[in-house]
Amino acid sequence: MQGEIFVNCLQWKRPDLELKSQSKQVVAELLQTIEQKGDSRIDELSQQFDGFAPSFIHLKPFADYPLSDELAESIKSAAQRIETFCHFQKQQLEDKYFEDETGRYGFCYKPINRIGAYIPGGRYPLISTALMTLIPARIAGSEQRIACSPSNHPAILAAASLAGATEFLHLGGAQAIAALAYGYQSCTPVQMIVGPGNQYVNAAKQLLQNKVAIDVAAGPSELLILAGKNINNEWIIADMAAQAEHDPQAVSILVSECEQTLSKVKSAIQSNQEIAKLQATGQIVLLKADDIEQMIKFSDSYAPEHLLLADERIDSQQLTHYGSLFIGENSAVAFGDYCSGPNHTLPTMGTANRSSGLSVLSFMKQQSIQQVSDRGRIELAKIGERLAEAEQLVWHKRSMQVRS
Fold first, then answer.
1. What is the pLDDT of residues 377-388, one digit of tens each?
2. What is the pLDDT of residues 166-181, one digit of tens each?
3. Among 83, 306, 329, 344, which one carries the catalytic annotation?
């Protein structure tokens, strides 16, 4: 294994995974027809793409769904951990005020009242998505929480019920996003849409941002591992394979300045045919760094969705850009996907350098408040009148003058 050549981390570039213009065009045309024809067009599209008519499903109490005892207990435990973390987040959001000679100023937090949570379909029920999207909204105080999914699997319905959905719309695809944004039957438009989906769902969310707030433009899953000299190969490789199985475009990267570590991991990967295939198709990538500083530089430049710190020589405070940080090899990224508590809806494609993952904060608005005193209206007018005059805004100036 000596003398193996690994690509330097600073030479590796993230694949361009921007939404294809063709997908956006298809969805833009679809949304236009929905705006024109309304509910009937949504019904047509659901039949065309998914083979069923949309419907509202009445959610029963969680205990009424036919789940195994083991699965039911795991769902409840995961939900409790997510809820605990959400309560902790909300406790940090205190309304704050200060006073000076001109008055009282501050800010407060208010929930977004009506939200939609999209839960993708697929071969298996995405239980965790229902929990991760609906629980933060409930804890934030959003009164109306509409779950929307092409799946009516009992586990999805049970999870949505437990998480606090107030309505459940059986509908999928871009047409589901349109239904949430424009309204459908008795369901009035929401103010925010969250949850992952395919390229058409993501395109619909992006195109409808002039009508609703959205969480993040979710791309394929990403994992970056900063690996030291003495890592557990079995654990680390399992983490890489786990994130790669989310999506054929998902990428798991391991970076190390230790060539021996890279060689051992590569050898272990090659001994497993299934995982070796992931490396051959570019879903698992091994990169070499010159030193620890270069590992940190690459990490912050890449801004991964998931960052696993498996090198004790690196202080977590040195790392700046990531969706969620997992410190130490005990911290399997899959724990974050399901049940540790922090949200698994995270920024991808490098957007972690400027955006955050889904949380209680996502469903709340920070609003400023000002109460000017008698003295303040005189003092502030002196400042404001001159600025209004410089900007030639006559009535701005006048509204302050009459108070001074």
1. 999 999 999 999
2. 999 999 999 999 999 9
3. 306
CA distance 139 to 168: 18
- Determine the pLDDT at residue 21: 67
- 30 residue type, one letter: L
Q: Which of 222, 305, 329, 344 is catalytic?
A: 305
CATH of 21-214, one of 3.40.718.10, 3.40.30.10, 3.40.50.1980, 3.40.109.30: 3.40.50.1980
DSSP, collapsed to helix, strand or coil, labels residue 116 as strand
Q: Which residues contact residue 368 at a Cβ distance below 8 angstroms, ignoring those fewer than 6 apart?
A: 105, 106, 107
Domain with CATH 3.40.50.1980 in the chain: 21-214, 219-351
Is 219-351 a domain of CATH 3.40.50.1980? yes
User: Is 170 tagged catalytic?
Assistant: no
Q: Is the pLDDT of residue 122 over 90?
A: no
Catalytic status, residue 306: yes
Which pLDDT score, from 0 to 100, does residue 20 have?
63
